[in-house]
Predict the 3D structure of the following.
Amino acid sequence: MHELARMSADERQRIIDDFVSETFHGVEPDAPGAHIAQAMRTVPKHLPTDPTAEQVDAWVERYWQLLAVLNGRPPVLSHIPAFEWLIAALRAEDERVRISE
């Protein structure tokens, strides 16, 4: 994922187009799964050279969602809220320990 984000827009689009063409060759636009091909074709061509943590999180979440659909699994629920809660809890515990010392 990191390598894909660091590629130029043209390189990234070529890889995505090749993958979509190979994977969905001959799939009619109204066939089951055709929406996946369209979703992959709409990946932004211009990504920032220095993405924020929020942007990387969003890309990773989208990657897992698309992967689940491609593998015929139910959509993946976002893990970000759970990790945000865990990070907040660890910081609060760290602060509590520092205060008690």
Q: What stands out?
A: The mean pLDDT is 75. The helical segments are 2-6, 9-23, 34-41, 53-70, 80-100. The CA atoms of residues 5 and 47 lie 7 Å apart. The radius of gyration is 19 Å.
